[in-house]
Amino acid sequence: MNIAAIGSIKRLEALQRVLSSVALEFTGFESTKNIDLSNFNLIFDLNFDDHLDLSSYMNLPQNPILCLNTIKVQLEAFVPPSLVNNVVGINALPTFLERKSIECSTLSSQLDLDFFKKLGWEQIHLVKSRVGMVSPRVIFMIINEAYFTLEEGTANREDIDKGMKLGTAYPFGPFEWSQLVGIDVVYETLLAIKTDTGDERYKICNLLKTDYLFFKSYELQA
Predict the structure, then answer these.
(1) Cα separation, 30 vs 151, whole angstroms
(2) pLDDT tens, residue by residue, 38-67
(3) Is 130 in a helix, a strand, or coil?
(4) Three-state SS for 88?
(5) How deeply is 44 buried, as exposed, middle or buried, from its count of CB atoms within 10 A (0-12, 13-18, 19+)?
(6) What would the pLDDT profile of 66-125 be if each residue is shown by its tens digit?
(7) Judging by beta carbons within 10 Å of its beta carbon (0-12, 13-18, 19+), is residue 133 exposed, middle or buried?
(8) Is residue 21 within 8 Å of residue 120, measured between CB atoms?
(9) In sequence order, what E strands does 91-219 have?
(10) CA end-to-end distance (rounded Å), the chain
(11) Which CATH architecture has domain 135-221?
(12) Three-point CA angle 207, 208, 212, nearest 5°
């Protein structure tokens, strides 16, 4: 199986850790510029929902399976009919990708997803194609609520993280998790869910927005 992976270093490293458990090798790229994708039959685009461009994958001779990170978007909005049987939307975020199960969505019942098990994931959780999927939506809402708790002065970040890990046995506290995934991903996903649903439950805490703006400002200066 010839595998190409396109994405940020952080997400490529997460995928590498998964694939290394089954002694597979893959070629990792940060962009598709000047890359010949014609020899690959499986392509992971870990940053798809940041650029939403499928032009590089049209009419490839190997007719590859495309695993696209689709946390901020819904598959139906961007996948043309010619690629419906080739595309899988996945939760490719750090900490989520490295679980023993993979969360994914498809637009076709004809697509055999058993290849995920051959790549190291023991379970396949097929969920509806929707903005936020399932587990990111739940965890990011918890992070948002943690920010409201912090904003109210009920507890500090460290105590909230400690309380969540001790009380729920979660692997990370909400603030710790937001750093591992990326505060930009958390904010932009919650914003996309709020826009998609119109549900006030997804109203973003002002303090979370402030942290996001600080992050984006720092990113521009770097």
Answers:
(1) 37
(2) 889 999 999 999 999 898 898 888 899 999
(3) coil
(4) strand
(5) buried
(6) 999 999 999 999 999 999 999 999 999 999 999 999 999 999 988 999 999 999 999 999
(7) buried
(8) yes
(9) 101-106, 123-126
(10) 38
(11) Orthogonal Bundle (1.10)
(12) 115
Domain residue ranges of the chain, discontinuous segments joined by +: 3-126, 135-221
Superfamily assignment of 3-126 in CATH? NAD(P)-binding Rossmann-like Domain (3.40.50.720)
Q: Per the structure block, which two tokens stand in for 66?
A: 């495309």
Cα distance between residue 38 and residue 201, in whole Å = 44
Instruction: Determine whether 60 is exposed, middle or buried from the number of CB atoms within 10 Å of its CB (0-12, 13-18, 19+).
Output: middle
Residues of the chain with pLDDT > 70, as a percent, come to 97
Phi, psi of 30 (to 5 degrees): -90, -20
Q: Residue type at 194?
A: K
Q: Could you give the 3-state DSSP secondary structure of residue 28?
A: strand
181 Rama class: left (phi>0) / alpha (psi -120 to 50) / beta: alpha
Q: Please report the beta strands in the chain, taking only residues with DSSP state E, as ranges in sequence order.
A: 3-6, 27-29, 42-45, 65-69, 87-90, 101-106, 123-126
* DSSP bridge pairs for 45: 6, 68
> Is 0.70 topped by the overall pTM?
yes
